[in-house]
Amino acid sequence: MILNGKTDIGLRRKNNQDSFVIRLWNDIGCALGVVCDGMGGANGGNIASALACEHFVSAVEAFMHTDRVRERTATEGDYSSMLARAVTGANQCVYSSTEKDKSLKGMGTTLVAALVVGDVLYAVNVGDSRLYLYNRGRLTQITRDHSLVQYLMDTGKLTREEARDYPNRNVITRAVGIERSIESDIFSVDLSRLSEDACALLCSDGLSGYVEAEEIQSLMAAGLSAQPYDGDATAAALVNAANETGGADNITVVLMRLKQTQINESKDD
C-alpha cells in the first residue's frame, strides 16, 4: 500500500481545524487512515479533532498489536466492534474535555477512518467527512453523511441539484464529542477483486463540499494513471481544486493506494 495525506488551511479560514493520521504496519500488511474535521470556537475545533484522532488511533494501534491480529484469528466482527469502541472512546475523550473546560463547550469533530486488513477494508464514520473508493475509473462514496442535507434528500424534501446550493449544507446531525454517547456507522468492503489502480480517498468536506465528485474522479484518474505514481502530487491536485473554488474551508485528503508500501504526509499552515 502507498499512503499519502495532506491538509491545508484553505484561503478564508484563520486556522486549520482539520486533523489526519496515517499508519502502516508492514509486518502484518495492514494500514489505517483517519480524517477529523473539528468545530467549535476559535480553538475548540483544533482541540476536538486532534484529541479524537489521537484517542482513536491509540485504540486501533493497541488492538493491532494483540495476538489475535498477529495470529490472523481476529474476525470481521472483531474489527468492526473495535472501530465502534474506538469511536466511543474518542467521543468520551472529547466530551470529558468540554466538561473540564467550559470554554470548550460545544466543540466537536467529524471522524472518518479506513482500516485495511488483507483483502478487507473496514470503515467507520460520524459526521460528513467521507470515504470514497476509486476502482476501474469510477469513484464511489462508501460512507453516508450524517448531515441535514442528507436527511432532507433521504426524505425527498431536497433534490441533489438543490442540495448543492442549500444554505445550511454544512449542518451535521452527528459529531464526536457533542453528546455523552455516540452512534457510528460501520462498513466493510471486499478488496480482493479490485483493479491495480484501486485507491481509497478520505476527506473533509473542504474537498467534497466544494469540488464535484466528477472532478474528484477525474483528478484521481489522472494521478493514479501517472507513471510513476506520485501520491503527494495527487493529494495536492485535490487540495488545489478546492482552493480554486475559493478555498472557503480547511481541506484534508488521505489517499490509500491499495498496493505497494510507502508513507508520506504534509501540512500547510
Summarize the structure.
The protein is an alpha+beta fold and 269 residues long.
Keywords, please?
269 residues; alpha+beta; six-stranded mixed sheet; 34% helix; globular
Unreliable residue runs = none
Q: Describe the largest sheet.
A: 6 strands, mixed
**Which of globular, elongated, flat, extended, rod-shaped describes the shape?**
globular
Please work out how many helical segments DSSP would assign: 8
Instruction: Classify the helix fraction into a percent range.
Output: 25-40%
The radius of gyration over CA amounts to: 18 Å
Strand order, main sheet: write it out. 8-7-10-11-1-12
Mean pLDDT, all residues: 93
What gap, in angstroms, lies between the N and C termini? 27 Å
Number of strands: 12
Q: What is the oligomeric state here?
A: single chain
Determine the strand fraction and express it as a percent band. 25-35%
Could you give the order of the helices and strands?
EEEHHHEEEEEHHEEHHHEE
User: Helix/strand/pairing class, anyone?
Assistant: alpha+beta
Task: Characterise this structure.
- With 269 residues, the protein is an alpha+beta fold.
- It is built from eight helices and twelve strands.
- The chain has helices spanning 44-64, 67-70, 76-100, 148-154, 160-163, 205-208, 213-225, 231-244; strands spanning 2-8, 18-25, 30-39, 108-109, 111-117, 120-126, 130-135, 138-141, 185-190, 199-203, 251-257, 262-268.
- A hairpin with a 4-residue loop joins strand 2 (18-25) and strand 3 (30-39).
